[in-house]
Specification:
- The complex is a heterodimer of chains A (about 230) and B (about 300).
- With about 230 residues, chain A is of the alpha/beta class.
- Helix content of chain A is about 10%, strand content about 25%.
- Chain A is built from three helices and eleven strands, in the order βααβββββββββαβ.
- Chain A has an eleven-stranded mixed beta sheet.
- The longest helix of chain A is centred in the C-terminal third of the chain and has 13 residues.
- Chain A starts with a strand and ends in a 15-residue tail after the last strand.
- Chain B folds into two domains: about 190 residues, Glutamine Phosphoribosylpyrophosphate, subunit 1, domain 1, CATH 3.60.20; about 70 residues, Alpha-Beta Plaits (2-Layer Sandwich), CATH 3.30.70.
- Chain B has a seven-stranded antiparallel beta sheet with strand order 7-2-8-1-14-13-15, covered by helices on one side. In chain B, strands 9-10-11-12-16 form a five-stranded antiparallel beta sheet. In chain B, strands 4-5-3-6 form a four-stranded antiparallel beta sheet, with helices on one face.
- The chains are: A alpha/beta (about 230), B alpha+beta (about 300).
- Chains A and B meet through loops of A and loops of B.
Chain lengths: ~230, ~300
């Protein structure tokens, strides 16, 4: 276990040390202490390592992550796991706005609540939120899955493309062109898998959820508008 | 971008440390606003006394014999404490308005930062650490306070453009964001008798809340009205003699984190601002909801 004191050694040294691990994996377990809400912790990691952050983080923790498993033993500030490519990010507490934004792959688990714009413009990432998500979540979400064990705020899935949205609790309002859809066996299988990987098997069962998706009626889906772009 | 910090003490034992705690929080928010900084500190003064905080670009001239000149104008004793470009003038509470009028005559170049029984406001251009040091904020005690670090967008980087803005007795407001309908709201408030010192959008927000309070509305009602009448981005923190309030616009893109323990309620634009507070590890920490009014009063 490599222990890194962020307060004593600084952010650039941490991220450089983590970036240096690309291509070699002897140092597979890392612990970051004294994060104190700092920004950009463990951004751009590209190695199959485990990183545990002991405390709460500021903006953009675990952004652009590839391969690594990053656990935050606290809450995360805005933009956690933004544009993640692969790997796993697990937040024990809450996440601030735009968690998992534009994520292209991997798994983001938030054990508390996520605030506004969770999964905005997601492009393949899987997101599991044990609590609630805030307003404008999954705005223009393109692909990937989000599983919410609690409630969703206003305008869920506005201008949605092909992402799968599963919510157990209430949805305050659906965004433009987002509708409730039929739950088929393949969706129940996706949910079962997300519950398992999202450390939530003991909290819910697949049949508890409703599915939301794109009605495909927005002008962007109309071929007559193709010449406008 | 701007930074906001706020601290409302429940435990009187922390009152001697209020200035030091707020200073530490304010400096942490330097990255969010290095242009200028300001702080409003509330303390319980002597019963029946009021305070005017004044600012001068030429303190060596304006503050010379200021207490004696004001005493002559009012016919009551005046205590003065000079801190750099600011001075706090203590007068009987019922003489605050008279003192304000007198100052406009005897020192027309001076600016009034705040007026009230509990409030003192200090603000200047410069890095938060330099502004806090200049006014010895860390030595101040009090019951609650609000600080702001400014990255200017809507008006020039000047002393009067810094936050907090005070537009009513013992009232102040700080803002992260930008208002888009401030010119229209300012015209309407001017028609209703409110006065303005700057072209700044936040001053309009402050005057809007002050006007509602003048009309007899509660702090909660006044903050609710910002959600319908003000357009733009805002996280506001508002101070009054007895407490403070928080409201975020419905889009809520300007960040906010709050923490509460048995000893205090704290506000920060980011969690970083709160990390050195006592007992933060076990505090209830949450993000205030959009379009939701929060306030704490004694």
């Amino acid at each position: 276990m490599q222990t890194f004191d962020l307060e004593a050694q600084g952010l650039r040294a941490l991220n450089q040390a983590l970036h240096n691990l690309k291509g070699q994996t002897n140092q597979t377990a890392w612990e970051v202490v004294n994060p104190k809400g700092s920004h950009a912790i463990a951004v751009g990691v590209d190695a199959p390592i485990d990183i545990t952050v002991r405390g709460s983080t500021g903006y953009y923790c675990a952004g652009m992550n590839k391969q690594a498993t990053i656990r935050v033993k606290g809450s995360a500030g805005p933009g956690v796991a933004e544009n993640m490519m692969s790997g796993t990010v697990i937040i024990d507490g809450d996440a601030s706005q735009y968690a998992g934004a534009t994520g292209r792959g991997g798994l983001l688990v938030i054990k508390g609540n996520a605030s506004s714009r969770c999964g905005i413009s997601m492009k393949g990432i899987d997101i599991v939120v044990h609590g609630n998500i805030g307003h404008m979540s999954c705005f223009m979400a393109q692909s990937g899955n989000i599983l919410v064990l609690g409630d969703a705020g206003d305008a869920l899935g506005d201008s949605l493309y092909e992402a799968h949205l599963f919510v157990r609790g209430s949805v305050k309002s659906l965004g433009t062109d987002c509708i409730e859809k039929e739950m088929r066996p393949e969706h129940l299988a996706i949910i079962a898998d997300l519950l398992k990987r999202g450390e939530a098997e003991h909290l819910a069962k697949p049949s508890d959820f409703k599915r939301y998706g794109s009605a495909r009626k927005l002008y962007t889906f109309n071929i007559d508008n193709a010449s406008s772009y | 971008m701007c930074g906001i910090v706020g601290l409302f003490l429940k435990d009187p034992k922390l009152q001697p440390q209020l200035g030091a705690m707020l200073t530490d929080m304010l400096i942490t928010m330097t990255d969010r606003g290095p242009d200028s900084a300001g702080i409003a500190i509330y303390s319980q003064g002597k019963v029946g006394h009021g305070k005017l905080t004044v600012q001068s670009a030429t303190p060596e001239i304006d503050f010379k014999n200021l207490d004696a000149d004001l005493k002559d104008a009012l016919g009551t004793p005046v205590l003065m404490l000079v801190k750099s470009t600011h001075a706090v003038l203590e007068v009987p509470a019922d003489q605050l308005d008279a003192a304000r009028s007198a100052l406009a005559k005897i020192r027309p170049g001076m600016k009034i930062m705040s007026s009230g029984e509990g409030i003192e406001i200090y603000k200047e251009v410069g890095l938060p650490k330099d502004v806090a040091a200049r006014f010895e904020i860390a030595k101040m005690h009090g019951t609650h306070g609000i600080g702001h670090t400014r990255m200017a967008t809507e008006s020039a980087v000047t002393t009067m453009g810094a936050h907090p803005f005070s537009t009513g007795p013992d009232q102040c407001l700080v803002h992260n964001g930008s208002l888009s309908n401030h010119n229209g709201v300012r015209r309407e408030l001017k028609r209703l008798g409110m006065t303005f010192e700057t072209e700044n959008d936040t001053e309009v927000g402050a005057a809007f809340v002050s006007h509602k309070l003048q009309q007899g509305e509660t702090l909660g009602q006044a903050l609710e009205a910002t959600l319908t009448d003000l357009d733009g981005f805002f996280t506001f923190v508002v101070g009054t003699k007895d407490g403070f309030g928080v409201v975020r616009d419905p889009i809520a893109c300007k960040p906010a984190v709050m923490a509460e323990t048995d000893q205090y309620v704290a506000f920060g634009s980011e969690y970083r601002a709160l990390v050195n507070l006592p007992g933060i590890e076990s505090a209830r920490v949450w993000e205030p909801e959009p379009a939701t009014v929060y306030f704490w009063e004694r």
